[in-house]
Specification:
mainly alpha; 0% strand; 133 residues; 2 domains
Length: 133
């Protein structure tokens, strides 16, 4: 029996590729619903959707920061992103900013004085943008 995740992948793939799922099921398998697919048919359909260009995205998780200063840096970054001052609120974008400002390749490797520099710089950025931190 196919899993909920496989049904979800089919729905996401059809949506991203702009394919009418019901027409595809009717043409390819003579079925009306993806719930009627056998395990083998689900595998075949996912392979077909991949051949059309669908690439499943992996779920990414944000790193956990235990230090209060690191959490403050992240909170300020997200605040700037939500206000539209920063294009991407993703951790990868934050890491590039950290590298540019401190030379450290990762926020977790910053020393307390570097974290303080980041916090104060982000606070000034918020002030310039008219954002309350």
């Amino acid at each position: 029996m196919p899993t909920h995740a496989e049904y979800a992948k089919i729905n996401i793939a059809c949506k991203e590729l702009g394919i009418d799922k019901y027409a595809l099921l009717a043409d390819r398998y003579k079925l009306e619903s993806s719930k009627q697919l056998s395990r083998r048919q689900v595998f075949d359909l996912l392979e077909h959707l991949r051949s059309l260009g669908f690439r499943a995205r992996r779920k990414t998780t944000s790193p956990r920061y235990d230090d209060a200063q690191m959490r403050k840096v992240v909170a300020l970054w997200i605040t700037l992103h939500k206000a539209g001052a920063v294009r991407s609120g993703a951790d990868q974008a934050l890491q590039k900013y950290v590298k540019r400002m401190t030379g450290a390749d990762n926020l977790k490797w910053c020393r307390p004085n570097e974290l303080n520099t980041l916090i104060e710089g982000l606070k000034r950025w918020c002030q310039r943008e008219g954002i309350e931190d």
